[in-house]
Amino acid sequence: MRKKAVIFIFVFFGLSQAAYGAGIDKYETIDRPAMISPDYNSIVIPPNIAPLNFMVKEEGSRYLVKIYSQNGEGFEVAGKSAKIQIPDGKWHKLLEQNKGNELHFDIFVKTKTQGWVRFDTITNKIAIEDAGSYVAFRRTHPTFTLTRGQIAVYQRNLGSFDEKVVMENNNYKAGCTSCHTFYQYRPDEMLLGVRNVKYGAMTLYIKDGVVNKIGAKIGYTAWHPSGKIVLYSLNNLPMFFHSANPEVRDTVDMDSVLAYYVIDSKTVKTAPEISRKDLLETWPAWSADGKYLYYCISPLTWMDKKKVPPKDYDKVKYDLVQISYDIDTDKWGEIKTVLSAEDTGLSIAMPRISPDGRWLMFCMCAYGCFPPWQPSSDLYMMDLKAAEQTGKYEYRRLELNSDKSEGWHSWSSNSRWIVFSSKRDNGLFTRIYISYIDEQGRASKPLVLPKKDPQYYDYCLDALTNAEFVSGPIAITGERLAEAIRSAGISVEMPLAITKATPTDTGGATYEELE
Amino acid sequence: MIRQLCRAMQSAAGTVVLTMLFFALYYLFLWQAVDLRLIYHGGGSVLNFPVFYKGLEFFHQTVFWPGGLVVYISAFFAQFFSIGWAGPLIAAFQAWLLWLAIGAIIRIACGRQLRLISFVAPILLLILYAGYIYPFGIAMGLLAALGFVYLYMRLTSKKRATDLPLFLVLSIILFLIGGGAYLVFALVCGIYELFLRRRPVPGIAFLVLAPIVAYVISAVVFEASVIDVLNGFWPRDIINIFRIAAAYGLYLLLPLTLLGLWFSETLKKSIAGSITVWFAKKEIVLPSPLVAIVAGAIIGVLSLNWWLKTQIGVTYFSCNGMWRQILETAVEYPGNALINHAANRALYYTGGLTQNMFAYSQRLDALMLPKEAWNLLGMWRLFDTYLELGQMNQADSALFQCVEMYGEQPVFLKRLALINMAKGDIGSAKVYLGALNKTLFDAGWAKGWLEKIELDPNLSSDEEIQRFRSIIPTINRDFNIRDDTVFLDLLDRNRHNRMAFEYLEAFYLLSNQHDKFVENLGRLNDFDYIGIPRIYEEAILLYSYTKKTKVEIPGREISAESRERFSNFLKVLAGKYGGDKKAAFYELARDFGDSYFFYSIYGLSGMKQ
Q1: Is residue A63 part of a domain?
Q2: Structural domain tally of chain A?
Q3: Chain B residues near residue A453 by CB distance under 8 angstroms
Q4: Residues spanned by CATH 1.25.40 within chain B?
Q5: Quick one: pLDDT at residue A5?
């Protein structure tokens, strides 16, 4: 008797599951695609990405999604929940088999009044090229006035939902960690900026498991393609607040300069051409061959560097300039304007050049140099190859923009993907998006980084920003990094006393490696 | 008679009754005297109150980390502190479990009951609660550790050569679920083996292995700092030395007791179950529970931090619209800027800001709090004032800093949701509502708003939101302005912003800017005031008298009562004392200490209270 009951239960269970998978013979069609969240409709998908779990935002008591492509076996996901959680193995297999093909979602919903309904097929494209295998990003509160809340650098395996902390500010009793950059997308050679009341401002240089503490603050960083120098900005960016603007927080670069750290000699240098007293210089980016540095400049128009914000801060607009550099002779050329704010009417920031040297992507916003706090900030593209031929730097606004802030963009190593931060879903919480860039420089509709729980972004109160593709997992542990932070101060020669943005001269002891 | 009573209380039934009485009183003390809702609320003084979210995401984030399970369970139960009677019940139950665990462990360790020692742990916890510290999490960790100690003692035997494998298994499990509390387990087991069972090899081995187990699991398995993991369960953010001692005393109680048992046979005998006292030349044996009740009562009352209770209480009352309680506190604690600020808000909501604000102690800098008070305690008081006035950005900034400091507490998230709805950023509001929807007790509130948004995506028919939208200023200014510009901008935006008007006039009255006060009296007609509010009448009378000019407000007359009062005031000051302010002070304070006349002359108020 008991045996029969067990068999009955198994058969019943199996049949009820099979009832979903057996195919729905009778249904009505609805002439529109189903509403799904996140919006994974008409996008280009990296073939190595984790399952794009989503919610079906249609009323119903049962849901069935058929996922299929040209090659291989499609599969179904079914259940009572509108939460569609796609099985990992089947997903990756299907994507792997269908690079360059379309991927379809057929969504069926059992409604109260109509029974089963089928919505128009959702069609996406699977790219041929992978995006980076990991993404490193920063997770913070949307505003970090006090730096007591959690600020952490995370790494996310793009092919799964695994996320791991690289370092968080609890490791060193509060402060700010940011400006993580990787040499040629390598997880074993990176820089990480840290600011902390107790241990001061510093940069961690990690190479092959060794953590070196550079006793110097760095800002926005750009590795020279040779790996021999790292160019960075030093900025004085006090935060201030608007009493009536939609965006509460704002910042202005009171003073800034560019400098570069020479890896072998462990020294910091600058040059008069990139550290002018009458200019604000920021957002460095190297050309793919390392022969040119692109960066943003604006005239420094205020004398009183203590009054925040200074008068006419909202009229400050940055130009995009270029300067030649010879790594062998350490010689800088003449500054040349690539794009002027006067011509665009907007302020230019965050230039990033694709690894193949073809494209220059940048932000433009109403004023200033910090696009994340500017709803007007959008992404633009410039074809450098075309500019070489025509002598004209022409640009266009990318299709992927929204009416909210876009920025913090970064290229994949194959120049086919970008990862960027956007507040498009709401005005406050930055999310990470990925978009495909085709050979004509057109950007596909972006997709938000998928999460295991497709409703995650409906309740995540963190801002996810500063995303960078990395070619593998970052092995160094947070504890190892925190140990370096807590270790005795290491100084680096800082011959900079040119502008107020520079840190205090630390006395001239040379940099030493830690064990 | 007394001896007979004590003998009765020492019986088994008597002990049980007394123990129950101890915990009943413990519960009542936590409920009525301490009021755990204040710890839940925090008020800027409790730094480590945990948040809790339903769902797998929070579960995964929290549990899969050393100590995570205990943190998760503690965070869940801690949410019940928001319910007046429930939090104390849970805290008292936890205290009882600690009492039980310690008693059971001591019984196994020395074969006797040392009831008095068992009561020490709940009393130490009481000291922490009475200091408005959140000790529930560390007590939960301690409970887990004691549970594992008991398990170890029950499962092991002196007859076996070694119990090392069992110790290791229990160590790993406890470290995973209890984190730093594991050290108590290791220490107690080590002392137990070394001194009480007299097995030095396992004893020393346990003490040596403890940090190794902690390091291996933290650094190797989880790649985490072992110090950070251990710190998670040790007392932090406690400043008072007495309470720090209580917190460490909780952890060290059992190890020190076991050491004491080994050290002194006398100790073992003398504190078995009672205390012997001499009364009227007769020996009376007082049962331990009775001693614990008396000691607990005295220590509880002495350690209750009344001032902190008041401060947190005022923010709690403020956040919950308990105006009467705020005004009662303001009377008890005159001159405190933070309490004065809350009192003015209470006066506004009870109609008192225009009628009897000078019946309370007033200071100009308390109205909107100066820049110097813009610390976290100040922000706790200001965010509601800003929100209600219409200064959404200032409220937003204050709330964000509170979130950074105190965590994603529902009290902040609700207000941030409202601010974003008011500013038209429905997307951001929905994220806050989404987070609130995952809390235990605020999900209903969030669901209500999410449903409204579903039906009316821009909330254009919601009265509360539309009212907020109608009062948000449009002129962008320096955030730090604290003068009348703030209120004038708000009134420019919407002349029917009653709170802005009353605060504006209060500002002028407090700063003796009578000309400006009179200039803005015409705004009375933008509201539904009947006649002229009493305080304004007094100011008008004073102004007319000193400036020798008549102030007319169309459709409104100064009442006869106010005229008579002013006349009597002048009779005393000018008539009886010939204008000598010093001489007239006491009589004027007694009869007119709640009037604007008095404040204007002496700069003091609330004298009649």
Answers
A1: yes
A2: 2
A3: 55-57
A4: 321-471
A5: 55
**DSSP code of residue A40:** -
In this complex, the residue of A171, A249, A428 whose CB is nearest that of residue B428 is A428
Inspect the interface and report whether the beta carbons of A244 and B477 lie closer than 8 Å: yes
For the domain that residue A399 is a member of, what is the CATH number?
Answer: 2.120.10.30
**From CA A371, how far away is CA A433, in angstroms rounded?**
16
Q: Which residues of B touch A143 (CB under 8 A)?
A: 397, 400, 404
Would you call A477 and B437 a contact, using CB atoms and an 8 Å cutoff? no
Same domain, yes or no, for A416 and A477? yes
A66 and A200 share a domain? Answer: no
Binary contact (B393, A141; C-beta < 8 A): no
Cβ B218 vs Cβ B229: under 8 Å: yes
Domain with residue A54: its CATH number is 2.60.40.3760
A419 pLDDT more than 60: yes
DSSP assignment letter at A503: P
Tell me the residue range of the domain where A232 lies.
134-513
Give the tokens for residue A265.
């000699």
> Where does a domain end: A126, A151, A166?
A126
A90 & A69 share domain: yes
User: Quick one: A83 and A162 in the same domain?
Assistant: no
SS3 content of chain A, % helix, strand, coil (to 5): 15, 40, 45
B51-54, Cβ contacts within 8 angstroms, sequence gap of 24 or more: B51/B75, B51/B407, B51/B408, B51/B409, B51/B439, B52/B76, B52/B78, B52/B79, B52/B439, B52/B440, B53/A459, B53/B435, B53/B438, B53/B439, B54/B438, B54/B439, B54/B440, B54/B443
pTM exceeding 0.90? yes
Helices (H) and strands (E) in chain B, counts: 32, 2
Q: Look at residue B535 and tell me whether its pLDDT is greater than 60.
A: yes
Q: Is residue A84 part of a domain?
A: yes
Q: Is residue A9 part of a domain?
A: no
Q: Tell me the per-residue pLDDT of B76-118, one tens digit each, with 9 for 90 and over.
A: 999 999 999 999 999 999 999 999 999 999 999 887 777 888 9
Same-domain pairing of A95 and A158: no
| Residue in A157, A74, A44, A138 with CA at minimum distance from that of residue A437 | A44
Of the pLDDT bands very low, low, confident and very high (cuts 50, 70, 90), residue A515 is very low
Residue that finishes a domain, picked among A81, A99, A126: A126
Instruction: Report whether pLDDT(A371) > 50.
Output: yes
pLDDT in tens, B190-213: 999 998 888 888 899 999 999 999
Position A24 pLDDT exceeds 90: no
Decide if B428 and A248 are in contact by the 8 Å CB cutoff: no
Chain B: nearest CA to A166, how far in angstroms? 10
Residues A67, A197, single domain; the answer is: no
Complex-level ipTM: 0.91
Residue in chain A nearest B218 by alpha carbon: A479
Confidence check: pLDDT of A490 > 60: no
* pLDDT tens per residue, range A82-130: 999 999 999 999 999 999 999 999 999 999 998 999 999 999 999 999 9
Domain assignment present for A419: yes
Are residues A148 and B408, on separate chains, in Cβ contact within 8 Å? Answer: no
Give the pLDDT score at A510.
Answer: 33
Contact A379, A400 (CB under 8 A): yes
Residues A37 and A163 in one domain: no
Fold of B321-471: 1.25.40
The residues in A 225-264 lying below 8 A from B, measured between CB atoms, are 240-246, 248-249
Do residues A187 and A254 share a domain? yes
User: Within 10 Å of residue B164's Cβ, how many Cβ atoms?
Assistant: 14
Q: In what order do the strands lie in the sheet with A417-422?
A: A406-411, A417-422, A431-436, A447-448
